[in-house]
């Protein structure tokens, strides 16, 4: 079983678990009169949608390239990560609004039902979190899915604590406080995921790569006069691309250039992690020699 297939299976199991949790919380929230359970159910429902998006995107990313889609669907998972990060922030804002309203208008609810259903949600989300614990390090798509599930589990813990305090101490305001705390965490994590996925979608240079240093390394090679018109972007989690033009100091043969190209590939891969390279050689060509072209 390949790692990708294993990750897909884990994601599929997580989707089924969260569908079950959502249905249980909706029914329990209606019967108990608990707004906390219904809001947690809404949170879980949006996560089910996000997980499905992640699942579909992961499958799309495996599709082969074609004449009309030369990159295939390799960016599908990045798009999914961007969508999921956006929903994290939206959910957090909704939760904060609800928490404020509930703080000023606390309601007496069936705390026993809240406690048991929150325990069920913690177990279900806990299993999902464990399933994606290692997979989250592989790409942003699975990382965003993991964060959704982890925050679901935290939200359920908050509901459980709130249920216990309401049952034994009638402290109905604690539910609002814990909900707001979780929402703030959601916003912090969501912004980070949103920024990372947005940078990839916008073809920004990866933060770990210093272009001036890279160009200087290449310019030190024999027969290389100057690297310019440099473009570096991250296609997905596995591929970083570079295209550039290189002025040569001599009118060398193709064989000699291929030897230089091999040196460039080694430097770019080993030092900068760039694994897809397209170099255009030039000799005595009069054009803009800036490292970055200003259109």
Cross-sheet strand order for the largest sheet: 1-2-3
Main β-sheet: number of strands, strand sense, barrel status? 3 strands, mixed
Summarize model confidence as the mean pLDDT: 84
So how many helices? 8
Name some characteristics of this structure.
elongated; 295 residues; mainly alpha; 8 helices; single chain
Describe the protein's architecture and organization.
- This protein is mainly alpha-helical.
- About 65% of the residues lie in helices and about 10% in strands.
- The protein is built from 8 helices and 3 strands.
- It has helices spanning about 5-30, 35-60, 75-105, 110-130, 140-170, 175-200, 210-220, 255-270; strands at about 225-235, 240-250, 275-280.
- The protein has a 3-stranded mixed beta sheet with strand order 1-2-3, covered by helices on one side.
- Helix 3 packs antiparallel against helix 6 (about 175-200).
- It is elongated and about 85 Å long.
Write the layout of secondary structure elements.
Layout: H1 3-32, H2 35-60, H3 76-104, H4 111-131, H5 140-169, H6 173-201, H7 211-219, E1 224-234, E2 240-248, H8 254-272, E3 276-282
Parallel strand pairs: 2-3
Antiparallel strand pairs: 1-2
Helix pairs in contact: 1-2, 1-4, 2-3, 2-5, 3-5, 3-6, 4-5, 5-6
In short:
With 295 residues, this protein is mostly helical.
